[in-house]
Amino acid sequence: METNYLIVLAIVLLIPTIIIHLTKRFKYPLLLYIILAGIVTNKIVSFVGVQLPAELGRLLVTIAVVALLFEIYAKIKIKHPDYFYVISLKVTLFIILISSLTITFLIKYLYAIENIFAALIAAVLISATSYSLFEIQERKWFVTRIHSYLESESILSPALAVALAFIFSAFAVAVIIKNSTVMISLPYLSFFVKIIIGIGAGIVIGIILSKYFSGLLKSKLLFIFLFGVIIATYILTEALKGSGIIAVIVMSLFFGNMYLTHKEEKNMVTTIYNNLLYVFLFIFLSFYIQMPFDLLFYGKALIVFLAYLLLRTIACFILLPKEYSMAAKLQISLLMAKEIDILLIAFFILLNQTIAQFSNITSLLIIITLYSIITSILSLRFSKFQIEV
Length: 389
Known about the structure:
Blueprint: H1 2-21, H2 30-48, H3 54-73, H4 83-110, H5 116-126, H6 144-174, E1 175-178, E2 181-184, H7 188-211, H8 222-239, H9 244-258, H10 263-270, H11 274-287, H12 295-319, H13 326-334, H14 340-352, H15 358-381
Antiparallel strand pairs: 1-2
Helix pairs in contact: 1-2, 1-11, 2-11, 3-8, 3-9, 3-11, 3-14, 4-5, 4-6, 4-12, 5-6, 5-15, 6-14, 7-8, 7-9, 8-9, 11-14, 12-13, 12-15, 14-15
C-alpha cells in the first residue's frame, strides 16, 4: 500500500511541474490551471483508491504555510507607508469588517454551518485579494493610480486576512456545541502566553537574521538559507510552547523592514518559493479534499461571491478618493482575484485542527477563488472600454 501511494504521488507531482514549466505559454493565471487540474486529478485518485497519510499532509501543509507567511509579511512596509498604503488599508479594513458582519451569516445560513467561527474564517479569507494575477496581463490600459492601489492592496489584504483567520481558528477549535448551545472552552491564559512567546521569538530571530544576513541576497544558497531559518523559527517556537505561526509572521516583518529596503529585493526574496507553493497546493487538491459535484453547492457559492462583490464595490465607491473616476472605482472593485494564500491557509486549518464542516468551507473557498479569477479576467478583457489612459 505504501508503495502504491508513493508511485501515485510521484506521478501526480509531474503534473504541476509540467504546468509551471508551460506557464509562459498560458494566456490565463497559473492558479486557474492548478485548481482545475487538481480537481480532475482528485477524482482520478479517488477512483484508484489511493490515499496519502494524514501525517504527511500535516507536515507538507505546515512547511507550505510557514514559507507562505514569510512571503506575505516580508513585503509589508511598517515605516513610512505611502499614500496608496493608507488608502488600501482603509478599504481593506472596511471590507473585512462588513464581510465579517454579513458574509459570515450568509455562509452559516446557506451551508448550515453550526460553528460561527468557521464561517467567520471563510468570510475573512474571502476578503483577501492579490495583485499577482495581473502581472501576466498587459498593463497599457491601467492608470498609474489603479496599478499602485492594487499593488498596495495585494500586500495588506492577505496579511490582515490571514492573521485574523488564524486568530478565529483558535476560537473555532474551542467551540463546543451541546443541545444547540454554543460554548467556548478556550484556555485564554495559555492562548495569550503562546502569542507572547511567539512575538518574542519572532523579534529575536528577525533581528539576528537582519543583522547577519549581509551578502546573502546574491548567494546561490539564499533559498536553502531562508527556508532553513523559517522552518527553524517555527519549530523552535513550538518547542518553547509558543505560537510558531506568530513567530514566523513577526520575524518576516522585522526582516522585511530592517533589511529588505528596496522593492526589488522584497520581490526577489519573497517570490522564490512560489513554484514550490503551487506544487504543495496541487498535492492537497489531489489527495486531501473531496470537491462536491452538487450544482446547488456551486450555486450557493455564487451567491456568496456576488454578495462579497457587492460589498467590495460599495466600499470602493465610498472610500476611494475623488481623483478616482467612477470607471476606475468599478475596475478596482472587479479586480479582486483570490490567490494561493487563502487556499493554503484553509488546508492548514483543515489538516491541523478539528473544526466541524471545515471541509465544506475549504471547498467553498476553492470555488470562490475560481469565480474571482474568472471575474478579474473578464474585467481585464474589457478594461480598455472602461478606463481612459
